[in-house]
Amino acid sequence: MYILYLSGPYSITLIMKLRIISALLLIASLNAVAQQPVIKADSRLNGLDTTFQRVLKTWNAAGFAVAVIQKNKVIYAKGFGYRDVANKLPVTSNTLFAIGSCSKAFTTTLVGKLQKEGKVNIDQPVNNYLPALKFYNEDMTNHITLRDMMSHRTGLSRFDMSWYLFNTSSADSLLKRIQYMEPNAGLREKWQYNNFMYMAQGALIEKITGKSWADNIKEKIFIPLGMTHSNINIPELLKGGEISKGYGVKPDHTLDQLDYFNIDGMAPAGAINSNVNDMAKWMSAWINNGKYEGKEIIPENFRNQAISSQAIVEGGLPEKESKDIYFGNYGFGWFLDSYKGHYRVEHGGNIDGFSAISSFFPADSIGVVVLSNQHGSKVPVVVKDIIVDRLLHLKYQDWISQIKNGQDKAELARDKEKKKTIIAPHHASTHPIADFAGSYSHPAYGTMKIYVENDSLFAKSKIRAYWLKQANYDIFEFYDKDPKDGVNTATGYAGFNLQFHMNLSGDIDGFEAQLESRLKPFLFVRAKNVKQAKAPE
Question: In 3D, which of 264, 289, 148 has the Cα closest to residue 213?
Fold first, then answer.
């Protein structure tokens, strides 16, 4: 301890100044404390720290944060593990994560507000409001509505490789691709998740309001809710604050720090970054009929429709292991099911390095938000289910073991399927590898560059690079080329192949690839007289 002794003619003045400074610091300190939610301990949540350490260990997770809402109060908010593993920076309830597709309900809420204002009718053809949106055929263009788009029942499959492998910040460019996406089901025939339909909702919102989707989110949701730390893209995330780095897990179970993935063009489908303190406010509005602190955030009528069944996802029959979890439907940006006799509304989110879940029970007035910095992780689901069972006074279920065992079985099955698609080599290719180099395009996806490097053939989309391993004749297998670790033939197989095509003159004029399992192979046409023999810059 240091003691300051003062003497002389200026001592009284200096003491007064120090007292004033101390008082100001105390006020600032009190204000900082006041910004943190004051949470009274809830006995139902006793012992969670130990349980959640087991979760971290089981999934070798870097970290996660969780908030629990009951009625209009936060009863639990805490972080576990690290937001920055290398520097041992801990996760707290203020740590910012990418929330991925948990963003979707924000976008549908903006549509709901436009409907209440009389600016759109969600049961009219969306082309009436957004003429730039054209579908594969005239019948689709003339009949697909916002209700269809919000509930994923347009007849279009995901087409995720279009925006993921061929990423662009131009929403206009992505919107034009929709016209070339052939449906694999009839309109309203079946539920099929499609991120492009949420990107298109964002384009509609911008056209009607004259403001960007991002500005609409900030002005109509973030500011009224006091979500002061949340933002809508990676550049804003990196400006500062308590941000988390994203991680994957390598086959040897070590953590792999991943680059942030900026999806500006697809932002309305999943670009929001937030923390559990802010997300708790958002969840509170949904729990309380669309209101937060007496202010309407979500129009009540729209809120009720959004959490009501609009499309059947699957039959959702009870399973032997979980007899009291059944039915699976979709509303507007929300999945719906029955959880042990309780009506559950939730949505997950996944983007490179991050996984999340927002879940609430409208009849029980409780909600849980879990944000994690692990890629494709089960951690948010496990943590959420552990907490919900306690809140609802349900019988104990070892979710950690059950979900981990299920995940291990699923991964083994996927590995077996991948091995089936790997082709045993039989014959050499019809051309020297340099003849395959070039620029190949499909209007529903984008352009892929094929090039030669060190006597090997590689492919590069907007953000990904692959090694092409010749399998049989002109069929090549795709292997990820990691920017840091290169190609790993044991674990890097991407799960799809491509076959080069020849024209009548014997020249390579395109390649066919089935980039997504539910879709037929698509033909990428080679640009005439353009070869890409060397790696693209």
Answer: 264
